[in-house]
Description:
Number of helices: 5
Helix content: 40-55%
Number of strands: 0
Structural class: mainly alpha
Strand content: under 5%
Order of helices and strands: HHHHH
Distance between the termini: 44 Å
Amino acid sequence: xxxxxxxxxxxxxxxxxxxxxxxxxxxxxxxxxxxxxxxxxxxxxxxxxxxxxxxxxxxxxxxxxxxxxxxxxxxxxxxxxxxxxxxxxxxxxxxxxxxxxxxxxxxxx
Length: 109
């Protein structure tokens, strides 16, 4: 296949929605939370074993989580992992910015 044969389709910004997965908004939020967990572990400069002690997980579970295998984790559990890493979580409910349905998103300060 040459580049002229390729068809490019713009993404929605949510790979899970692009793949047609149910609950795509929840999947992308979970992925963003795991990304934050990974960033905090790296920022702290701790090993996966040390992170596991803080999080109440085994090292293999930390490894799977940070590699993106987070299906078994609920949003609530991921939020609890972030608080175990010393982070505050604020949940804000507000009017949508557009006329479409509401959205879930993660923002860090």
